[in-house]
Amino acid sequence: QHVDSKWVSSSSEIIAFRKALLNPVTANQFQCFVSLKGDLLGNGVLFWQEVQKYKDLCHSHCDDATVQRKITAIIDCFINSAVPPALQIDIPAEQAKKILEHRKELGPYIFREAQMTIFALLFKFWPKFCKFRSNLASDKILLALERKKGKKMRKKEG
After folding, report:
1. Which residue from 23, 38, 40, 151 has the highest number of Cβ atoms inside 10 Å of its Cβ?
2. How far is residue 59's CA from residue 153's CA, in Å, rounded to a whole number?
């Protein structure tokens, strides 16, 4: 649909994308695809998945210590990494700061804004990925992506 000449996604496309991110095989293929488009995009897929696991943990009513460990693990990996850059996902610095300030608040929403930002960013690549994989057998997708990655690396070196 076109609204003010901007593309508006249908809810069925959004649902399909969400399901794809929850499917380990498709998510892995998509992660490889977007990591060719930008260094932090691949991390975005992993971040989105880890936040989903975190929310499931919260809803499973497990103990606070476990929930806190998961928060710390996500923060240490994606928001305040020991490996430079500290922010390993494409979110505004203010969002990262807010997460760090609220890291002791347990509950499913600590990463909500960041997860929505990442989802919207990644969703822009979904149609391109669907087009890319439509021409390939499922077992050939990762192989094709590896080839593209190799070409990209050779360009950087040469």
Report:
1. 40
2. 42
DSSP 6: E
Residue ranges per structural domain of the chain: 33-157
Dihedral over Cα of 26, 32, 34, 40: its sign: positive
Q: Output the six-digit token pair for 117.
A: 């930002």
> What backbone torsions phi and psi does residue 63 show, to the nearest 5 degrees?
-70, 155
Question: Phi/psi of residue 126, each to 5°?
Answer: -60, -50
The reported pLDDT for the residue numbered 107 is 85
Within 10 angstroms of residue 93's Cβ, the number of other Cβ atoms is 9
Fold of 33-157: Regulator of G-protein Signalling 4; domain 2 (1.10.167)
Phi then psi dihedrals of residue 66, to 5 deg: -65, -45
